[in-house]
Amino acid sequence: MEKTSDFKKRKGFTILEEAVVIAVIAILAIPLVTLLNQSIQAQIYGTRDVKGQYYANLIMQDFERRVRQANSGSITITTGNPYKITFTYQQADKDGKNPSTISYSYEIDDSNTANSLFKRNGQVFPVGLEKGVIKDFKIISQKTDTSQDPPYYIEVKIETSTGTILQKTIYLVNYYKQE
Fold first, then answer.
1. What DSSP state is assigned to residue 175?
2. Which of 15, 49, 64, 101 is positioned for an S-S bond with 162, CB 3.0–4.6 A?
3. In whole angstroms, what is the distance from residue 59 CA to residue 62 CA?
4. Among 155, 154, 151, which Cα is nearest to 167's?
5. What is the distance of C-alpha 53 from the center of its chain?
6. pLDDT (tens digit, 9 = 90+) per residue, 1-35?
7. Cis omega before residue 150 (within 30°)?
């Protein structure tokens, strides 16, 4: 009779061999999972930052277009919660006749929190804006006292939740010196 080794008779792997293979795979997989997680987090942060910049630009453009035409002496700033800016301006019909006075308000509820929400005339603005994307909105300096000499302006600052700051000086074309 011929002798055969135990190795040739054996079919399959031992538990110890399988455990070693699993351990090696886990050691290789952990850094890959960590790298993938960091990549996903960076993508999410980047997307939030772009979204915040987009909404901040929309708000600034809309605010600038309207407040630039504000009637002389009509800008009112209410600090606190909500921080609110109100003003009026004249708008004529398509023929340039029959001007009507339009009131506008821009406000931010719960500024500097995860629940901050920007509104125009009491409605969330822009449409689709989520809570917390716009962190702060305020006038940081102004010259709206019409007893002083022109130019009259307001300086607006909008901050997003990711720390992007959009700041702009807006000159008020309908403001004039009151004598």
1. -
2. 49
3. 5
4. 155
5. 6
6. 555 555 566 678 889 989 999 999 999 888 888 88
7. no
